[in-house]
Amino acid sequence: MTITGSPGVRTARRQRGGRAGAAVLTAGLLAAAALVVPATTAQAEPVLLSQGRPATASSEENPDYTPARAAVDGDLTTRWASEFSDPQWIRVDLGRSADLDRVELVWESAYSTTYEFQVSDDGASWRTVYSTSSGDGGTDEFAVDATARHVRLLSTARSGGYGNSLWELRVFGEGGGTDPGDPGDPGPVDVDPGHPDVPVGSGPSTVEVVGGDGDWDLQVDGRPYTVRGFTWGPAFSTADHYMPMLRDMGANTVRTWGTGADTRELLDSAAEHDVRVVMGFWLLPGGGPGSGGCIDYRNDTAYKNEARADILRWVEEYRDHPAVLMWNIGNESLLGLQNCYSGTELEEIRNAYAAFVNEVSVAVHQADANHPTTSTDAWVGAWPYIERNAPDLDLLSVNAYGDLCNVPTAWEEGGYDRPYLITEGGAAGEWEVPDDVNGVPDEPTDLEKERAYVDSWQCLREHDGVALGATFFHFGIEGDFGGVWFNVIPGDNRRLGYYAIARAWGVDTSGRNTPPRITAMDVPGSTSVAAGEEFTVTVDVADPDGDAIDATVMLNSKYVNGAGGIAQAEFTQTGPGTFRVRAPEMLGVWKVYVFAEDGNGNVGVETRSFRVVAPPVDGTNIARGKTATASSFDPWNGDWTPGRAVDGDVTSRWASEWGPSAWWQVDLGSVQSFDHVQLVWETAYGKAYEVQVSDDGNSWTTVRTVTGGDGGVDSLDVDARGRYVRLNLTERGTEWGYSLYEVGIYQQ
Description:
Blueprint: E1 34-35, E2 47-48, E3 55-57, E4 80-81, E5 88-107, E6 112-120, E7 127-132, E8 139-158, E9 165-174, E10 207-212, E11 215-220, E12 223-225, E13 227-232, H1 239-247, E14 253-255, H2 263-272, E15 276-281, H3 301-318, E16 324-331, H4 333-336, H5 343-367, E17 373-377, H6 383-389, E18 396-399, H7 407-414, E19 420-424, H8 446-461, E20 467-475, H9 481-486, H10 496-504, E21 517-522, E22 529-530, E23 534-542, E24 549-556, H11 558-561, E25 567-568, E26 571-575, E27 578-582, E28 588-597, E29 603-613, E30 620-621, E31 627-630, E32 654-655, E33 662-681, E34 686-694, E35 701-706, E36 713-732, E37 739-747
Parallel strand pairs: 13-14, 13-20, 14-15, 15-16, 16-17, 17-18, 18-19, 19-20, 22-29
Antiparallel strand pairs: 1-24, 2-9, 3-5, 4-9, 5-8, 5-9, 6-7, 6-8, 10-11, 11-12, 21-23, 23-27, 24-25, 24-28, 26-27, 28-29, 30-37, 31-33, 32-37, 33-36, 33-37, 34-35, 34-36
Helix pairs in contact: 3-5, 5-6, 8-10
C-alpha cells in the first residue's frame, strides 16, 4: 500500500484510501474550544479481550458468510457456523498472556450440548478450565480462573442436525491488551525487540542472509540485524526533519516503493541517523507508476528489458551507499495481475512474472554482491510462485495487516526454504474488517490500532529465526482517509501507535508526554441523519498527562464519491466531549472524525460512520409511483429511466444523457394542488432550473425558479396546481448531465 510519493494500490480484492489533496493537518489541527477532561485511573472491572482478535475454527460452513472471525467482531447480526459434524472447535488468540475472568457464549439456534472451554500459552498444549454436558443454547456465561494467551471452545456434541453456530464468543479479563478505560501510558511492553542496532558506517556495507533450516538471521557487516521499521511517507527532501522522529521510536529501517534520483536525499539522511533503507522498485501492475498497465510477462520483451535496465541503473548508482539494506523487486504485482487476466492465462503470466523477478535478482546480484534481494506481494498466496520460479531471491516478503499473525503458520505449512520480511503491516485494513451498521468497513479504534502494532511484532518475534522483522505501515503525515486509518504521525503529531511500537522496540516512554486516549465515540441516530441538519457526536477522551485538549470535528465522503480528503465540519462544542455537527447535503454514508490534540505534538483520532438521508417532509408524496418521462436518459450504465426518480428508493435514480439542458416530468393522474417539492440530487445536480406545472402537458407555467443550486437536497415551498409537474433543467452543476435519486411532490 502507498500514500505519499507513490500512487495508490488498486486491486480487485482491496480498495484503499490513497493520496487526495493537501493534508488537512500541518503544524496542528484547527482548534475548537478547549476540551479538558481529567485523566482517570484504570477500572478494576475486567475488560473484553477477545473482540477483533484473530480467530480460527475447525471448519466454517461458509467462509464468506459464517467465518470464525464473525464470532469475535462485536456484531450480534454476524456469526460463526461450523460444518454439520462432531467434534468442532473455535479458537482465539488474545495477542498476549492475560488473566481471564469470565466467558460469554451467545449461541444461535444451532448450539452445543457438550463442550469444554480450554486455554493455552502456546496454542499447542491445551488445558480445560470449564466443561458442561447440559448446554441448552441461548447465552452461556461462566467464570474462568486462568492465565493464558490462547482460548478454545471445543464442542463434542451438537443439539441437532446442524453444526455449531455462535453469534459471539466473549472473553473477559485483564492484561490481554490495552484497557479501553485506562487513559494512561500502558507502560513497558514485554516483547523481545530483537538484535541491537548496527550503526551505519561511512562506507559501503555488506548485508547477507545467514543460517538455515529455520534459524536464519539478517547480518549487517558481520553483526545480526533485526528490521525494525516503517514504510516511508514524507517527501525525501524533508527526511532530515522526520528522521529524528523515526529514530526516537526505536526504528532502524525504512522501506520505499520506488527508487530514483531523489532517493539520494533519503539515503543521505538515513545514514546520518543510523537508519537503513529497503530500496523498492516498481513492476507493473503493482500500484506504482502506470499501475493499470497489463503486462504479459511471457512475451513482452520490450517492457522487461526496459524495467531491468532501469532497476540496474539505480542499483549501480546506490550500491555503495552505506544506508542501503536490500533491494526489493516489485510490489503486489502477482496479486494485481488478477485485474488483467484470469484462468490458465493468469497462472502462466504469474509464473512468468516470478521468473522475470528471478532474472532481475540474478542481474542485481551480479551488479552488487553485497546486498540481498527480495520481492513483495500482498498475500502469502504469492509465495508458491516465488518458490517455483525465483530461487535467486534471498528472502521472501509480504504485505500483511490484520492477517499478519497467520503468516508464520502459512510459512510453516508452505515448507519454504527462505526467511521472510513483513514489508507492510499494522491495523486491519478496509478489506479485512466487517461492515458497520451503515454497511461500510468498521475502522479499528485508535486503541485497537495501538495494540495491533504490538501484537504483530510479538507474532513476528515468536517466529524468530524465520521472521527477520518488519517495516510497518505507515510513517506518513497525511490526515486524509487513508492517513487516519494507517499513519502514525499525521500532521507531525504522534499517535498512540507511535508510542506502542516504540515500547515494543525497547524504548522507555514512561517519562514522555503521550497522546489523548479516546475510549468511546458515539453518533446517536447514525443510520438516519437528515441532510443539512445538526446531529450529535460524543467522545470519551482523557489525556494521561493532564494536558488541555483541543478538539476539532472533520468529515470525509469517500463512501459517497470516492474522495480521500478530510474537511473541517461546521460544528459547535456544547459540553465536554459533546459536539453539534452540521450534516452535509449530499446523501450517502459519510465518516465523522474527532481529532483530539494535546498541544505537545500528540493527537488521538477516532471516527464513526453516519448515513445522510433526505429530510422528512410532512404530508403526502403524490408523485410516488406515478408515470414519469424525460427528454433523455442514460441507456448505457444501468436502469436510469425517468420512473426511478419516483419509485421511493433513494438508491435508484434517473440520469439524463450528458448535455447542458434537459427536462423531467411526472403525470400525477389528475389536476391536484401541492405546496412542497423535494429534489434529492445525485452528484450530477442542477445548478439552475424551473419547476413548472401544466393541466394538459402542453402549456406550462413556472411556479419556482432556482439559480445557484449546489446539489444535495433541494427543499422548495411552492403554491401550485396541475396534473403534470416538470423540471426544466437549464444549467448543470457538473460536466455530466442531470441525475435525481428522488422527486417528491407533497400535499401538506
